[in-house]
Amino acid sequence: MQPTPADRRGKDQRAREESGELSMKASTNPSPKGKSPSQQIDTIIKELGDWRGKKLSQLRALIKKADPAVVEEVKWKKPSKPMGVPVWSHDGIICIGDTLKNAVRLTFPKGAQMKDPKKLFNTRLESNTVRAIDFHEGDTVDEAALKALILDAVGLNTPKERERTAK
After folding, report:
1. What letter would DSSP give residue 138?
2. Residues 26/72, Cβ–Cβ less than 8 Å
3. Exposed/middle/buried for 154, CB within 10 Å: 0-12, 13-18, 19+?
4. Checking CA distances to 134, which of 62, 69, 105, 112 falls within 20 to 30 Å?
5. Is residue 154 part of a domain?
6. pTM score of the predicted model
7. If DSSP codes are grouped into helix, strand and coil, which group holds residue 113?
8. pLDDT bucket at 163, cuts 50 / 70 / 90
9. What is the pLDDT of residue 68?
10. Whole-angstrom distance, CA of residue 44 vs CA of residue 47
11. Cα gap 118→108, rounded to integer Å
12. Cα dist. 95→2, 61, 79, 134, 141 in Å?
C-alpha cells in the first residue's frame, strides 16, 4: 500500500497546518476580532507609527481616489508579518503595499505588462511579471503618474482589456 501525501508529511507539519500556522490564505472576511480589511489596514498604518505609516496612508488614499471601486484586502498573515499585508484589488490584484525597514513598497503583480512613461518603477525591474516602486523617507509622490499606473493595472484586470491584450 502506497503512503498518502498526509502520511509523507511529518506530524509536526500537519499539526502546524491544522492550527493555521502555515496558512497564508487571503483574509477578505473580517478577522477573528471582527475587523474589516479596511480596519485592519488602519491598524497596520497606526502600528507603524513613523513616516512609513504616513506614506502608506498617502498611497492608500491615492489608490482609492484613482479607483473608487477598489477593494481593500489583507493577505499573507504569517509569523514575520502577523498583521498581514495590505492589498488593493479590482477584478484581480492591482497592487500590494509592503513596509520595509527603509521604504514603503508598492508592488504591481502585472507591472511588466504596464506602461510606465514617468519611470516610477524603481525595483524588481528584472522580473518577467512584477514591478515595484520603493518610496523612501522624504520622497515625493508623482500623484498623476501613480494614478495612471493604477488605472493601467485595473485595465489589465478587466475582461475587455484582457481580451484586447491577448490578441
Report:
1. T
2. no
3. buried
4. 69
5. yes
6. 0.75
7. helix
8. low
9. 95
10. 5
11. 16
12. 43, 13, 22, 13, 16
Amino acid (one-letter) located at 83: M
Distance CA 65, CA 84 (A): 23
Supply the CATH number for residue 124's domain.
3.90.1150.200
Q: Let me know how long the chain is.
A: 167
**2 within domain boundaries:** no
Domain residues for the domain of 157 are 25-166
Cβ count within 10 A of residue 142 = 14
The answer to whether position 83 is within a domain reads: yes
Supply the pLDDT for residue 34: 78
Count of domains forming the chain: 1
Distance separating alpha carbons of residues 95 and 118, to the nearest angstrom: 18
Q: Are 96 and 151 in contact (CB under 8 A)?
A: no
Asked, for residue 126, whether it belongs to a domain, the answer is yes
- Residue position matching grid coordinates 491615492: 62
Q: Looking at the chain, which runs of residues are DSSP E strands? A: 71-75, 85-89, 93-99, 104-108, 131-135
Q: Tens of pLDDT along 65-104? A: 999 999 999 999 999 889 999 999 999 999 999 999 999 9
**Separation of CA 107 from chain center:** 7
Beta bridge partners of 104: 99, 135
